[in-house]
Amino acid sequence: MYLMTNENFRHVGRGVIVLVILLIGFLLSGCSSVKQLDIFKTEVERAPLNLSEPEAAKMEKIQWVIITSENAEEVFAKLKEQGKDPVLFGLSDEDYELLSKNFNQIRAYMIKQRQIIDQYKEYYEGDKKAE
Known about the structure:
- 57% of the residues lie in helices and 0% in strands.
- The chain has 3 helices and no strands.
- It has helices at 6-32, 72-81, 93-130.
- The longest helix has 38 residues, at 93-130.
């Protein structure tokens, strides 16, 4: 049987103190050095967009019939002769102008979107065209 004496306690105590000091030293030295990251130093090649040109919209031909109070009966009679149902969708002259403005706004929006797509294509594929 092994008996612990005061001298044995001193040796064990010193060993624990040395061990704690070494652990604290390792922990502090591990946190003192930070490695430089190379995340932003390597340029990644831009992938082409592979966007095909959209097809132009195919519009159906619309026949506009202008109906006034003077020609209403004549227009309805012609429509009945052609076998078409005489249905009236009416716009005042002011509403027709608003319809025209709306179509112009849609057209301007489409042109702007086309320019944005062209700029994206230039950004992603512009360098390859110059080579």
